Amino acid sequence: MSDQPAESIRLRPALESLPSYVAGKPAADDGRARYKASSNESPFPPVESVRQAAIAALQSAHRYPDASAAALRAALGAKHGVEPAQIALSTGSVAVTGDLVRALVGEGDEVVFAWRSFEAYPILVGSHGGVPVPVPLTARHEHDLPAMAAAITDRTRLVLLCTPNNPTGPALSTEQVEDFLARVPEHVVVAIDEAYREFHDPATVLGTAGIFRRHGNVVLLRTFSKLQALAGLRIGYAVAHPRLARALGQVTLPFGASIPAQAAALATLQGDVPQELERRAAWIRAERSRVTAALAGQGWSLPVSQGNFVYLPLGAESAAFAEFAEARGLVLRPYGADGVRATLAEQEANDLLIEIAGAWRQPRA
Ligand SMILES: Cc1ncc(COP(=O)(O)O)c(C=O)c1O
């Protein structure tokens, strides 16, 4: 087969400058014990009743899913105190973020977000013809909200706030977000991506519900991939004001949320599953405190994480540290010359992280 016709296909020039999404490395199966702490996944499998719901749903896999996802949207509407029509679903919150870009951002329009943050943001914006406007984090690895507000121009259509921030960990407070929103024009949509919300210290977690009620331009992004342990089923959603939710429904992939994904997501909201998930979140928080304290004892200075991960700001040594860890059985996620993210995973993996971080600080030949 000649590849000449393929050579003449006119790809959009924007693709040339698009960064590639780097997925967390799998724990290679070469016979050695290895832990995967590179994708912020749950170390626990889905709760049993959730797994059973997904399996039972396969019985109907010859049918298309309920495109309106009526049962799940009703349950999510009740959870968030909004109308089901204000819930927009897709194949993960990354897809819903893409839907937001498609619904709001025309060629040359700008999207402001912190950087470093979730690496899908510049890809989603750039691939739809938008202009990514990354605003550097502060020296404490937090969103620089005054700089983000100052980066808003006439072309800005969307601002993405990631709290807790992936990969660095710090979260925004209600007061910070309210102050920021007071500086954002009402026609600019502000998405609050809370993929890691459940891992936040509950005493100080962002008052998102009140913020949503007070600001018509705020949209909430949530996922079932982290605490709910459904990353492989791909389902997430937005809570939006009805006009925006309708627009998300217009641009989203038809039938994106599959039958088992809808059934499993619904099951996470039922019976005693929410209590079981909260116990898991509390366990992760306790592990975060334990790991953070141990690393501080070794002399590490880490940003305060409210996620299911910690971030080691190693700068130019990031790649070397990730290799050092991998050689000792722990697969982490390096970010260029910025830092390395370690997911809080099984207890043994977290113990290994402490051991490796300590060994790294010993003088090496
Ligand atoms: C901040 C943030 N938002 C969204 C997502 C994507 O979640 P989903 O699996 O629902 O697409 C992730 C996944 O890592 C994330 O870190």
Q: How would you describe what is shown here?
A:
The protein has helices spanning 4-8, 48-57, 70-80, 93-104, 120-127, 145-150, 174-182, 208-214, 242-251, 259-267, 273-297, 318-327, 347-361; strands at residues 35-36, 87-90, 110-115, 131-136, 156-162, 189-193, 218-223, 236-239, 309-312, 330-331, 333-335, 339-343. It has 365 residues and is α/β, with parallel strands linked by helices. It folds into two domains: 24-40 and 273-361, Alpha-Beta Complex (Aspartate Aminotransferase, domain 1); 48-267, Type I PLP-dependent aspartate aminotransferase-like (Major domain) (Aspartate Aminotransferase, domain 2), CATH 3.40.640.10. The strands form three sheets. A seven-stranded mixed beta sheet has the order 2-8-7-6-5-3-4, with helices on both faces. A three-stranded antiparallel beta sheet has the order 9-12-11, with helices on one face. Strands 1-10 form a two-stranded parallel ribbon. α2 (48-57) packs antiparallel against α10 (259-267), α4 (93-104) packs parallel to α5 and α4 (93-104) packs across α9 (242-251). The longest helix is centred in the last third of the chain and has 25 residues, at 273-297. The model has no long low-confidence stretch (mean pLDDT 95). The structure holds pyridoxal-5'-phosphate. Pyridoxal-5'-phosphate binds next to α4.
